[in-house]
Specification:
It is built from 10 helices and 14 strands. The chain has 331 residues and is an alpha/beta fold.
């Protein structure tokens, strides 16, 4: 089972709408369930992987819609906390084949109000992977609450001489949500010491390591303890760099998957979920088994994840595919 930790929010996605008798079309917004860890949880559930979402959901009508989305996509809600704070809103600006731009309204919202007291003293016995990241890790008290869980699970496993759960991070950086860049980068690098998989993008790495090229940035992550870096590059495809069992480097790359674009919202989140789903479906969802992946397996997993992300790009909002849809999809 995968436990996805972080925010669930409402993406306000732009649409062109006519206003009354005026033939000109003006911009309006439609609400879609979103939040990077939430989207990834949905992707895992749709692909048949047991998954729980750990976070706070408002009791307002947007929160109810987010809750319905979890249930409909077979995501467990046992680790959820419901609260009276309003749901977080994220207004989206979209340009074709570019990373969406976001304007967040997080203050006082439930998504970022997760506290250390909300973290369960013990995760379910079936937990094999913990996923975290995104804007929840830029806001307090949620960042400290999730960080405490990650460090606890990593430390306990090390003390007991066990591998522990696979920990996967997607920073999903939104610069407008980071008040102190240097402090964030320092904290980010402390997380990497507990992380097995870093799923990131070229834009993320350019923000974190502006003086390094992509290869040097990925190597920096591996040097801090990360086992596998997954780099999404939009229409250019995806790249993986693995630090193997003997510290050797193994690289795999897949090209872009051409599609008719609706928008790219949730594409990276779906990629992350689909990659973890491939690991689960192939008995590889553990730190040691990730370390022993072959180049062929890496390429296959990347292709599976890239295809799922491409399919999402043909739909508006984050709408991950079921396994049967993915099998049938040809672009």
């Amino acid at each position: 089972m995968v436990v996805c930790c972080g925010e669930a929010l409402i993406d306000m996605v732009p649409v062109q709408v006519p206003l009354g008798k005026n033939p000109d079309r003006e911009m309006g917004f439609l609400p879609y369930p979103g939040g990077s860890p939430y989207n990834t949880a949905l992707a895992l559930g749709q692909l048949g992987v047991a998954v729980q979402f750990l976070g706070r959901l408002s009791r307002d009508f947007f929160g109810e819609r987010l809750m319905t989305g979890l249930i409909q996509n077979r995501v467990g809600t046992d680790l959820l906390v419901r609260s009276g704070e309003p749901s977080t809103l994220a207004f989206v600006h979209i340009e074709a084949w570019k990373e969406p731009q976001y304007l967040f309204y997080p203050e006082g919202a439930g998504a970022h109000s997760l506290t250390p007291a909300d973290i369960p003293g013990r995760l379910p016995e079936a937990t094999r992977c913990i996923l975290f990241g995104s804007i929840a890790m830029t806001r307090e008290p949620a960042a400290s609450a999730i960080e405490s869980l990650i460090f606890r699970e990593h430390t306990q496993a090390a003390q007991q001489g066990k591998a522990g759960p696979l920990i996967s991070l997607d920073p999903n950086i939104r610069p407008c949500m980071i008040p102190d860049r240097e402090a964030y980068i320092h904290r980010f690098e402390t997380w990497l010491r507990a992380v097995s998989i870093l799923k990131t993008s070229a834009e993320d790495l350019a923000y974190i390591y502006p003086d390094k090229d992509l290869n040097a940035s990925m190597e920096r992550a591996l040097s801090l303890g990360v086992r596998l870096v997954l780099l999404t590059q939009g229409s250019a495809g995806a790249l993986a760099l693995l630090r193997g069992e003997r510290d050797e480097r193994l690289q795999a790359q897949v090209p872009g998957f051409p599609v008719t674009l609706a928008d790219t919202i949730g594409a990276g989140d779906t990629f992350h979920g689909a990659f973890l789903a491939w690991l689960q479906l192939h008995g590889r969802l553990s730190p040691s088994r990730v370390a022993s992946l072959t180049r062929g397996e890496l390429s296959e997993a990347l292709g599976f994840a890239n295809k799922a992300a491409a399919l999402v790009c043909t739909r508006h909002g984050a709408n991950p595919p079921a396994l049967a849809e993915l099998d049938a999809f040809t672009g």
